[in-house]
Write a structure and sequence with these properties.
The chain folds into two domains: 209 residues, no CATH class; 164 residues, Alpha-Beta Plaits (2-Layer Sandwich), CATH 3.30.70. The protein contains 14 helices and six strands. Helix 1 crosses helix 8.
Length: 400
């Protein structure tokens, strides 16, 4: 991209693609280039056949017969090039193929006139130059290839004009110089078109790069908008979107679901005694422990607010949810994070409320299930903290 910016920052006429940029341009432009070359070759074959057919009707048989063998050079050469350009090849091979094919086509057109003689001699040499000019204009090929085509056409024209019995050397040279000016102008136009194509390609690369950077920035912003900046787990908004998506697809009836509400015990005492920095460190550690206690990537945890975390377990029944909740509780306790003024232990502990929606049970919204988990958490706090309480439909809430 630094090279792209450098080229676009200079003058348009100074744009030159080298190295990886040139290779990338060829790869991007190959399908269009190959299609144009194949189409041109096919039309040359068609026009050659139509011209011979028309001549067979309008001209004497002897004249037509003298045109046949030189005209027969053109179709195989054009067909060969059309076949080669059906798929990518090395650049040098493409160059040899296209230049050889065009040279044989030009030679074929010129020989038709030379072999027939008379008025056809100079007419077909002029047609040959016209064919070369159309190739230079139409083919989106490297400039050096276009120059070779132009030089080949002028060389064929000069050689045969010098052998033309109807004109002298001066006329042959003058005619060659006249047509050379037109060929040079055509090559200059080809160069301008190539530079503009390169500039368009560079602008496309820059736009793609900027769009990619913008998309990446938007992705980062979206990630930040869905992530709690302190703990790195999902935030409340992200969890609500997940729950709404799950419920909107009506997956609760076929899979069931469970929620855990986890709250750090006596967190205010920790903040007041050890400071907010230690409190933040505690929340980061607890969030990591909860995240590591999930069953798999389907389970999600979010910081719901303050020292409270909401855990969503899609497809989990009450027993599975209880196992996850107990795993979280025991691991937090085993981490021995300091909380010396806690009323439970001199370490950080968590209380957890569990609520589960069984597969095939009566419909319940995400908000209702969350309220049940909240009620179970309240009971866990009320019955001594550092424990797991499970909400049951029969008896309200029952402590684990």
């Amino acid at each position: 991209m630094a090279e792209v910016e450098r080229l676009l920052g200079g003058r348009t006429r100074d744009i030159r693609l080298n190295g990886d940029l040139a290779q990338l341009f060829r790869e991007r432009s190959w399908p269009q280039t190959a299609k144009i070359i194949r189409a041109w070759m096919v039309w040359v074959i068609v026009l050659d056949g139509l011209t011979l057919g028309l001549n067979a009707i309008l001209l004497p048989t002897g004249t037509v017969m003298s045109m046949l063998w030189p005209a027969s050079i053109l179709p195989p050469a054009a067909l060969f090039a059309a076949i080669v350009f059906r798929r990518p090849h090395a650049l040098w091979l493409q160059g040899i193929c296209i230049l050889s094919a065009v040279f044989l086509i030009l030679l074929s057109v010129a020989l038709v006139g030379v072999n027939t003689g008379g008025e056809f001699y100079e007419r077909h040499l002029t047609i040959m130059l016209f064919v070369a000019v159309t190739a230079i204009i139409i083919f989106p090929i490297p400039l050096r290839w276009a120059m070779v085509i132009g030089a080949s056409a002028l060389g064929i024209y000069l050689v045969f004009q010098l052998r033309n019995p109807d004109i002298d050397m001066g006329s042959a040279l003058a005619g060659t110089l006249f047509f050379a000016s037109g060929v040079v102008a055509t090559i200059v136009a080809r160069r301008t078109a190539t530079i503009l194509a390169h500039k368009t390609f560079l602008l496309e690369l820059r736009d793609r790069s900027r769009l990619a950077a913008l998309a990446d920035a938007n992705s980062q912003l979206e990630l930040l908008a869905r992530t709690d900046p302190l703990t790195g787990v999902a935030n409340r908004r992200s969890m609500m979107e997940t729950l709404h998506g799950f419920w909107n697809e009506d997956l609760t009836r076929t899979r069931g679901a469970a929620m855990l509400m986890c709250d750090v015990d006596d967190f205010k005492r920790l903040n007041d005694n050890l400071g907010h920095a230690e409190g933040d460190r505690c929340l980061v550690k607890v969030a990591g422990i909860i995240q590591s206690s999930m069953r798999d990537e389907r389970d999600q945890v979010a910081r719901y607010g303050g020292e409270e975390f909401l855990v969503f377990l899609p497809g989990a029944d009450e027993q599975q949810a209880r196992v996850v909740a107990e795993r979280i509780r025991s691991r937090v306790e085993a981490a021995s994070l300091p909380n010396p003024t806690s009323r439970v232990l001199p370490y950080v502990t968590v209380s957890t409320g569990v609520a589960a929606l069984m597969q095939g049970s009566e419909f319940m919204s995400a908000e209702q299930l969350q309220r049940q988990a909240d009620a179970a958490l309240y009971l866990a706090k009320k019955t001594g903290r550092n424990c797991v309480a499970v909400h049951t439909r029969e008896a309200g809430q029952v402590s684990d």
